[in-house]
Amino acid sequence: MEKIIAYCGINCSECPAYLATQKNDKKELKKVAKEWSSESMPFKIEEIYCDGCTSEGRLFSWCGECPIRSCSREKGFENCAYCEEYFCENLKMTFDKTPSAKERLDEIRKNL
Q: What is the reported pTM?
């Protein structure tokens, strides 16, 4: 499977929503929706479908609203590693929760 790196550095190709979508596994999509839901933010199975952050296809509902994705797309970058403002406040929460995302973008940036 091709590696898909989101604008924030998360590896979409390892994401449970992406994997379940690509397998068209409704049972797994339902499981992801339940695991990712909270009282204040419930998700329906239809909101979980995702073809990867950088795709023009289906997106996990939050990704469509993601300020990191919006910013990177507006600037025309493959991901945030290419930005002259790297890394900005928008990325802080992602990096706090997913340190591997920062490591990925740092590695990309080092090779630019």
A: 0.85
CA pair distance 2, 75, nearest whole angstrom: 24
CA 2, chain centre distance (Å): 15
pLDDT string in tens for the chain (112-residue length): 678 999 999 999 999 999 999 999 999 999 999 999 999 999 999 999 999 999 888 999 988 889 999 999 999 999 999 999 998 998 998 999 999 999 999 999 999 8
